[in-house]
Amino acid sequence: MNPEQSSNISVIDPISPAINRTRAILFEPFELKKWFIIGFCAWLAYFGSGSGGPNFGGGGPQHDGFHHGDNLEQVKDFVISYLPWIILVAVIVVAFIIALVLVVTWLSSRGRFMFLHCVAENKAEVKIPWSRYRQHGNSLFAFRIVLSLIGFGIFAVFAVITVLLVVCLAQGGFNIFAVLGLVANVLLFIALVIALSLVGKFTMDFVVPVMFLGAASCVAGWRQFMTVLSVNKARLLLYILFQIVIAVAISAIVVAAVCITCCCAACILAIPYIGTVLTLPLLVFKRSYSLYYLRQFGPDFDVFSPEVVEETGLLEES
User: Do the domain assignments include residue 64?
Assistant: First the structure.
């Protein structure tokens, strides 16, 4: 079946097989060793994707008896005196952060294929997928870095434009053209951020499985996925909206667990790797759901195809 001929595409139908596959992988039978191995792959796949909570501490103005003018002079003198050291420390910190981001992105890119391997083939393996999908992971890493650079460039450009417009309003008073320009700038920035977010989401949910099935690179995977996207924009928009529903449901489950355990679960889930192992059923379900959804567009997008089943020995119900 060609993507153009797909008609029965549903966001509901993949739920049941995704639940069944999660049960088959993790509970039939239950093996603690298997949980920890697949959990490691999942932890690596989502490595660095977590976000910390908001910081509500001490944001208000402080008055400690010092004059602001004296403080500014002291800061100015300190900066002038230690400027070379400040620059050196700043360069080292920035270089360390960039290196850390690159390492984390590279590891998580490799981990995406390792976790997909475990879910698609019902195998708890680390070494084999790490080696087998090395080229795929490196290509995904390069694509994500380019996407991040594009996002950073967009942010920088729009930040400069916003500052210039705000300065124009502050110095020249109310100007309808500056106000309209500021509003248009913000709306365009939001639209571009949403577009980049969709590219990232489609890459992880669909392009990675396409690469898993044989695409030579992330660009080649996107080229193949575009045959689906170009004629199924409304369906994929519905998929994104339903993903929000799934995310809300999963968040509700986690919050309920935290409340029932009097926040003890929150402390445990915050532990790196251990938290991933404990939430593994949710992660396996999410990965399985996107795979079963993608399979509806034809055998070319089926990671559970007979060829894969034959290679892995996994009997998959159609």
Answer: no
**Measuring CA to CA, how many Å separate 107 from each of 101, 181, 271?**
10, 41, 19
Query: Looking at the domain assignment, is residue 233 inside a domain?
Result: yes
152: its two tokens: 């950073």
Smallest CA-to-CA distance from 26 within 281, 285, 291 is with 281
Half-sphere exposure of 60 toward its Cβ, with a 13 Å CA cutoff? 3
Q: CA-CA distances (angstroms) from residue 203 to 86, 239, 270, 312? A: 40, 14, 27, 25
Asked whether the CA dihedral 252, 255, 259, 264 is positive or negative, the reply is positive
> Is 66 a domain residue?
no
Q: Which domain holds residue 118?
A: 3-47+71-312
Question: Whole-angstrom distance between the N-terminal and C-terminal Cα of the chain?
Answer: 15
Tokens representing 78 are: 């300190």
> Given this model, what pLDDT does residue 69 score?
55
The crossing angle, in degrees rounded to 10, of helices 218-229 and 134-172 is 70
State phi, psi for 52 to the nearest 5 degrees: -75, 160
Predicted pLDDT at 50? 53
| pLDDT at position 3 | 52
Averaged pLDDT for residues 40-64: 61
Neighbour tally for 241: CB within 10 Å: 10
pTM: 0.81
So what's the pLDDT on residue 41? Answer: 96
Owner of token pair 């929150």: 266
**Is the alpha carbon torsion for 259, 264, 265, 269 positive or negative?**
positive
pLDDT band at residue 64 under the 50/70/90 scheme: very low
Domain total of the chain: 1
Task: Supply the DSSP symbol for 52.
Answer: P
Report d(CA 318, CA 315) in Å as an integer: 9
**Rounded to whole angstroms, how far apart are CA atoms 222 and 234?**
18
Inside any domain, residue 55: no
